[in-house]
């Protein structure tokens, strides 16, 4: 079961996307936070993949409008983005949702969406586990929040997936993240660049994407609450 879903944010709605198993009962939920270009086919594909493995997956267009990705990111403050994610979680735990098994969720995020996800994971107890896919760990000195400040304060399991040949993220920063977040698992795929999960992108790498997806599913299976499926006979 999948399709677009308007998400209430403040007094308006943002474009959202939901995929979940076609079963009766309640299942663990993963919030899928988009990259620099906002919610598009990659996030929807990830949602559907997770739904096929027994999770509900919910994404949202953080930027709320279309345009050049970098320009929209620069226009959007960290606090505005964090507010949208908070509203997404508030919708998830509202009376309108009957398929979510717990208030605690996982977050799967890519690129700059990972910045916002990491900050949420460090500051909100409803984040149970966190997957970061090629999220920048430096270069945000002009933003309200610097991700590196939160690396030592992540109280949840973390899976970081990066390309060793990423021309936007120095692999040494991933090594530093592993040092500062010892209970997390930070992996580098050799010969792989930025955006290797994006099936529509120039840097898509099938082997790495397949391995990453298997790791993501196993990680959420191990860290999120178990489903409560109803047997309707």
Task: Note down, in words, how this protein is organized.
The structure is a single chain. The chain is of the alpha/beta class. The protein has six helices and ten strands, in the order E-E-E-E-H-E-H-H-E-H-E-E-H-E-H-E. A hairpin with a 2-residue loop joins strand 1 and strand 2 (12-19).
Helix content: 25-40%
Number of domains: 1
Q: Give the topology string: H per helix, E per strand.
A: EEEEHEHHEHEEHEHE
Anisotropy-based shape: globular
Q: State the major sheet.
A: 8 strands, mixed
List low-pLDDT spans: none
* Name given to the CATH architecture: 3-Layer(aba) Sandwich
Average pLDDT figure? 93
Counting DSSP E segments of at least 2 residues, the number of strands comes to 10
CATH class: Alpha Beta
Structural class: alpha/beta
Oligomer: single chain
According to CATH, what is the topology?
Rossmann fold
> Approximately what portion of the residues adopt beta-strand conformation?
15-25%
- For the CA atoms, what is the radius of gyration? 17 Å
Strand order of the largest sheet: 1-2-5-4-6-7-8-9
Distance between the termini: 20 Å
CATH homologous superfamily assignment: Alpha/Beta hydrolase fold, catalytic domain
Number of helices: 6
Quick tags:
233 residues; 23% strand; Rossmann fold; single chain; alpha/beta; eight-stranded mixed β-sheet
Topology:
Layout: E1 2-9, E2 12-19, E3 25-26, E4 29-33, H1 41-52, E5 56-60, H2 69-75, H3 78-92, E6 105-110, H4 113-123, E7 127-133, E8 158-163, H5 171-180, E9 185-189, H6 206-223, E10 228-229
Parallel strand pairs: 4-5, 4-6, 6-7, 7-8, 8-9
Antiparallel strand pairs: 1-2, 2-5, 3-10
Helix pairs in contact: 3-4
């Amino acid at each position: 079961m999948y399709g677009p879903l308007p998400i209430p944010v403040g007094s308006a709605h943002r474009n959202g996307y939901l995929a979940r198993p076609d079963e009766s009962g309640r299942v663990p939920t993963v919030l899928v936070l988009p990259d620099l270009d906002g919610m598009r086919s990659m996030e929807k594909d990830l949602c559907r993949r997770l739904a096929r493995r027994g999770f509900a997956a919910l994404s949202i267009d953080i930027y709320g409008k279309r345009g050049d990705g970098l320009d929209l990111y620069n226009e959007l403050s960290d606090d505005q983005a964090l507010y949208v994610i908070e509203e997404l979680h508030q919708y998830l735990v509202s009376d309108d949702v009957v398929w979510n098994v717990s208030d605690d969720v996982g977050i799967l995020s890519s690129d700059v969406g990972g910045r916002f996800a990491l900050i949420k994971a460090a500051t909100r107890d409803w984040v149970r586990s966190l997957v970061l896919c090629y999220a920048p760990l430096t270069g945000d000195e002009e933003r309200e929040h610097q991700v590196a400040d939160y690396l030592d304060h992540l109280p949840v399991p973390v899976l970081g997936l990066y390309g060793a040949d990423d021309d936007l993220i120095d692999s040494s920063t991933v090594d530093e993240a592993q040092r500062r977040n010892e209970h997390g698992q930070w992996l580098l795929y050799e010969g792989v660049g930025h955006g290797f999960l994006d099936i529509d992108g120039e840097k898509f790498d099938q082997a790495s994407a397949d391995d990453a997806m298997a790791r993501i599913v196993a990680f959420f299976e191990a860290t999120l609450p178990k489903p409560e499926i109803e047997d309707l006979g």
